[in-house]
Design a protein that fits this description.
The chain is about 35% helix and about 15% strand. It contains 22 helices and 25 strands. The protein is globular, with a radius of gyration of 29 Å. The mean pLDDT is about 95. The structure holds beta-D-glucopyranose. The site of beta-D-glucopyranose (BGC) has 7 residues, from loops.
Length: about 775
């Protein structure tokens, strides 16, 4: 009964919100019909750096947007020294390492509340681009190298913000993976790779969370600026995925504005002083842009504008302490414990003397530089927070390095001295501000020389070394073997120092998992040869093989694999079950596994499900993440976790038919705790309902005719027309010769038979065979 009531409530709410959407569209359409051409064009660009234009005579309001994504950066114009203080949450690479969409949603709700309190209608985020290389300057602002993980975290985040009546702007669409030449560079990516790797996080979020806006990227995609790319904006975002909201340009991303209107770019930001509004008017007058198209664009834009303004709540006051606490909780779930020899962590309460080393312990790096940089309401540092939590321990401090991480022998000597006199030394290292920023890419994957030297020197004198890393993306660890523990704390936001103290002392049991592969060396990465591109063309030659997809295929041992992360407890996986051993891809397929906490403390585990196709039609990654779930378990507790598979989980994108396809055959479902630790396996025989139906042409290859539905007969006819023989090979020699002939002919387009069969294969034969092969 309760379920039915909830269902009814849910249904009523969605009917109501659908009715409201329709209402805003109706109102928007009516307003557009009352506008002059100039007024319509004026709405297609902003009024200021952050707001849209109002039209007083029609009662059209202006709306305000601001960065994003992990806090509010509301300021006048482009002067950010005075942006309003707001809670600085962990940046995206940290957040994704929580593998917890519900937590992302909670964080989104808080961001929505802060937006309401500051009269902000749209928060510019989240950033869901894929990490093509660990060197990407904005990797700290992006979630993952995997589209499913990025997509699910994005859905949580967007739902959270938008539940507060504040819109989001999911960015930067599309294939925006380097900062070098970011405003002009062309990301040259094949259609399959776009659809399998660079689109799905956006797609999932559009379909499941409907961000009010999507921000197009600066770069070109296959030669065409994203801001005027009809394939990206009209075809994919609007028509294929059904985006209801509007598309806004990244700040200054517009090239030819009228082309943009036609392609589906609704709003140009920031204000361009009427420059482009005039161009739109001229284009309509000249007839190169249809007024009907402009009307559609302005209607979409207005529908969201009206909704955004209506959703504003007056009198919201932010509870800063509560949000700081939430930021600490989120950050705690993001920390990834990479190494913990001899269970050195959590720190024993019996410890008398611990050396804290490294500036970052007192002056943490907690966010990245660029447009996402917010002014925090407060900053917690790990040194002070540790002292509060571990009262019986005496902590010494040595700064260890200078701001930019240069080697400073005197500082290293002081740190070494402190470490000698302590039972444990905790070194805080990572990347200084200047190493990671919007606007440029990293030169290498290394920590500053001073940090590496410091860790090496301190681990010479003390065996109990814990390294805490504060950085936004993967780094190399030449000192890995010489230290007992490594905690990747990422850029944990303003309360990150508190979260580190929580994890080090065991108040919080770490449960983060890497959302990106940590390579051993830059040379091992798929883009090592050409990243960032500096000649205007970023050729995505590695295709679908980014991140773990590449490392797995090449059997390269990473430093730490995707999905990896330790806990203070242990988990046992067992009893994988499928509701079916053989099914159509469209059937209900449910996989369940049991996971037990086999240790002594409560903990959270991320159960990861990957799919492996046994015999592929075209090259595919070894395993691909399709589902995951984070669960909490008390010591000794066991839970069953179930995953519902969808046909998309088995599919690959076939560019020949511009659609998803599945080859019938066996698929292994692998479940475990990281991409390289998948102890459970269940094989399912899938009968495809999505076979790629590629029409055969006169240029199709001989071997492709073998796969045609009535293949045996057609294939036989082809061989016969070429050899002129109608008899089946019988002797061993005849069989060998037939096989040889088949291998030789396999890759030959059939029209070549016209030339090479000595007249035996005729145009009539070809037409007849084509007709037969393309039947049904
Ligand atoms: C960035 C966007 C940001 C915008 C507004 C651009 O330079 O690429 O991510 O939202 O500026 O600050």
């Amino acid at each position: 009964m309760k379920k039915i009531i909830l269902l009814l409530i849910g249904l009523t709410a969605s009917v109501q919100s659908f009715a409201q959407e329709v209402d805003y569209r109706v109102k928007a359409k009516k307003l557009v019909s009352q506008m002059t051409l100039e007024e319509k064009a004026s709405l297609c660009s902003g009024e200021t750096a952050w707001s849209t234009k109002p039209i007083a005579r029609l009662g059209i309001p202006s709306i305000f947007m601001t960065d994003g994504p992990h806090g509010l950066r509301k300021a006048e114009g482009f002067d950010f020294t005075n942006s309003v203080p707001s809670t600085c949450f962990p940046t995206a690479s940290a957040l994704a390492s929580s593998w917890n969409p519900a937590l992302a949603q909670k964080m989104g709700e808080a961001l929505g509340i802060e937006s309401q309190a500051n009269d902000v209608q749209i928060l510019l985020g989240p950033g869901v681009n894929m990490k093509r290389s660990p060197l990407g300057g904005r990797n700290f602002e992006y979630f993952s190298e995997d589209p499913v993980l990025a997509g699910k975290i994005a859905v949580g985040f967007i739902n959270g913000v938008q539940s507060q009546g504040v819109g989001t702007s999911m960015k930067h669409f599309a294939a925006n993976s380097q900062e070098t030449e970011r405003m002009s560079n062309s990301s040259n990516v094949d259609e399959r790779t776009l659809n399998e790797i660079y689109f799905p996080a956006f797609e999932m979020a559009v379909k499941e969370a409907q961000p009010w806006t999507v921000m197009c990227s600066y770069n070109r995609v296959n030669g065409v600026y994203a801001s005027e790319n009809p394939y990206l904006l009209n075809q994919i975002l609007k028509e294929k995925w059904g985006l209801k909201g509007f598309v806004v340009s990244d700040w200054g991303a517009v090239n030819e504005r009228p082309l943009g209107v036609d392609a589906g770019l609704h709003l140009e930001m920031p204000a361009s002083g009427g420059f482009n509004d005039k161009k739109i008017v001229e284009a309509v007058k000249k007839g190169t842009l249809s007024e009907a198209r402009l009307d559609e664009i302005v209607t979409d834009l207005l529908a969201i504008t009206l909704k955004a303004k209506d959703s504003h709540k007056k009198g919201i006051v932010v509870n800063k302490e509560k949000h700081n606490e939430l930021a600490r909780q989120v950050s705690g779930e993001c920390i990834v414990l990479l190494k913990n020899d001899n269970a050195i962590l959590p720190l024993k309460s019996s410890l008398k003397k611990v050396a804290i080393i490294g500036n970052f312990a007192k002056t943490p790096r907690y966010q990245g530089a660029g447009s996402s940089q917010v002014r925090p309401t407060q900053i917690l540092n790990a040194f002070d927070e540790l002292k509060k939590l571990a009262k019986g321990t005496e902590f010494s401090f040595a700064s260890g390095y200078n701001i930019e991480g240069e080697t400073d022998e005197a500082k290293i000597a002081e740190a070494v001295q402190n470490a000698k006199n302590s039972e444990v030394a905790i070194i805080f290292a990572g990347l200084p501000d200047s190493y990671e920023s919007e606007g440029y890419d990293r030169n290498n994957m290394d920590l500053p020389a001073g940090h590496n030297k410091l860790i090496a020197a301190v681990s010479e004198v003390n065996k109990n070394i814990v390294v805490v890393l504060l950085n936004g993306a993967a780094v190399t660890m030449p000192w890995k073997k010489g230290v007992s523990a490594i905690a990747e704390a990422y850029l944990g936001g303003q309360a990150g120092g508190g979260a580190i103290a929580d994890v080090l002392t065991g108040k919080v049991n770490p449960s983060g998992k890497l959302s990106e592969t940590f390579p051993m060396r830059l040379e091992d990465t798929p883009t090592a040869m050409d990243f960032p591109s500096k000649d205007g063309n970023a050729n995505y030659g590695e295709g679908i093989y980014i991140g773990y997809r590449y490392f797995d295929k090449k059997k390269i041992e990473p430093n730490f694999p995707f999905g990896y992360g330790l806990s203070y407890t242990t988990f046992a996986y067992s009893d994988i079950k499928s509701n079916t051993a053989s099914a159509k891809d469209s059937d209900d397929i449910t996989i369940s596994v049991k996971v037990k906490n086999t240790g002594k403390v409560a903990g959270k585990e991320v159960i990861q499900l990957y799919v492996h196709e046994q015999e592929t039609e075209i090259a595919r990654p070894e395993n691909e993440l399709k589902h995951f779930e984070k669960i909490a378990l008390l010591p000794g507790e066991e839970k069953t976790v179930s995953f519902k598979l969808t046909s998309r989980d088995f599919a690959y994108f076939n560019p020949k038919v511009h659609d998803w396809a599945i080859k019938s055959g066996k698929f292994d479902i692998l479940v475990g705790s990281s991409s390289r630790d998948l102890p459970l396996k269940q094989t399912i025989d899938i009968q495809s309902t999505k076979t790629a139906k590629v029409a055969l042409t006169r240029e199709s290859l001989f071997k492709e005719f073998k796969k045609a539905p009535n293949s045996q007969e057609i294939y036989g006819q082809l061989v016969q027309s070429f050899t002129g023989e109608n008899k089946k090979p019988e002797t061993e020699d005849e069989k060998k010769a037939a096989l040889f002939l088949e291998a030789m002919l396999a890759d030959m387009p059939i029209n070549k038979f016209l030339l090479l069969s000595g007249g035996k294969f005729t145009e009539e034969n070809l037409q007849a065979i084509l007709k037969a092969a393309n039947q049904n």
